[in-house]
Design goal:
By secondary structure, the chain is an alpha/beta fold. The chain has 2 domains: about 5-105, Rhodanese-like domain (Oxidized Rhodanese, domain 1); about 110-355, Metallo-beta-lactamase, Chain A, CATH 3.60.15. Helices cover about 30% and strands about 20% of the residues. It is built from 14 helices and 19 strands. It has a 6-stranded mixed sheet. A hairpin with a 3-residue loop joins β14 and β15. The protein is globular and about 65 Å long. The two termini are about 40 Å apart.
Amino acid sequence: MPSSHEIDVKELLAKVDSSRPVLVLDVRNDDEFANWKIEGRREFKVAHIPYFDFIEDEKAAAERLPKTQSEIVVVCAKGGSSEMVAEMLRNRGLAARSLVGGMIAYGEYLAPVQVSVSEEQPVCEIWQFNRRGKGCLSYVIISGGEAMVVDPSRSIEIYEAFLSERGTRLAYALDTHVHADHISGGSALAAKLNAPYFVSAGADYDLRQPVNRLKDGDLLPCGKTSVRVLAAPGHTPGSVCYLAADRYLLTGDTLFTKSVGRPDLGGHVVEWSADLFRTLHERLAPLPDATLVLPAHYGDITEIGPAGVVMATLGELRRALPELQIDEPGLFTDVMMRMVRTPPAAYADIIDVNLGRTQTDPEHLAEWELGKNQCAASSKRAN
């Protein structure tokens, strides 16, 4: 539990999402603040004064704060510098607390939100786990006392506790693809709870994770329902989607609510773009417009709907996304090539870990995962 001089990520997000009076003071360096910061679903006050400004001239730095009657929450990378600045401010008579764990804790925080299932007698329940700091989404599907976990983050104890609270047995841990922006918890969760694990990397990749082989069209039973495997190459050669209860499409990084997955992370943008076009325009074509798309990432806080879930129907996306309205594969490839950009340097290291080729310590993993995901093909995110 946080002390009276601290605040955790859950409480801070509740404040910034509800417009409760709060001033977030970010004391990281200029480049760190510019690249990644706390986001809320409503507007809130933010100030940026680097930590070293307080060290050099505490009085002058404090006087740069905007005048406010609100509580001040001080944020840094790991929670140490913010703790010192918050104490300085309290000594000046200001109500200030430090964010426990800093931006690393913000980047790792997971919050489950239940996806609305409209059937009168639903055969399953679906939970979307939102990792707000990275824009990462994972899922727990529960039916008849069994569960599947899809695209889990590396904090597997959160999923383990969630399943235990609901008295459910893990039937399968699944990844939609080999992730580049974060470490998967799929293999570790499956091993911990004695369940099968599946991910596909594609024929040319050295996957060393122990997996249960699956193929396109396989049906995975889960309690009173089943999940169908749909091969969906393009973002990566081994990408798959999972269709739960014939209605809920977990698309991984193939299709998002505002864009499609970028096909350039492996350096084969022409070949992978052709695969992605066929997946979007042929593989997913038979699915009805009412199919609910549940992606593995999102790029903007506005993609979170009123009920707290990132989702859209396939029909809505067919009408709204320019990439789904391109009907010529060559033109689609041209568009994808114009969106090519350099991925973060850590992505290659993360892929190696997720393939099972290397291991490293938790501190390095946390550093590699810092920042929002860059998995969408979008000119707005080009660098």
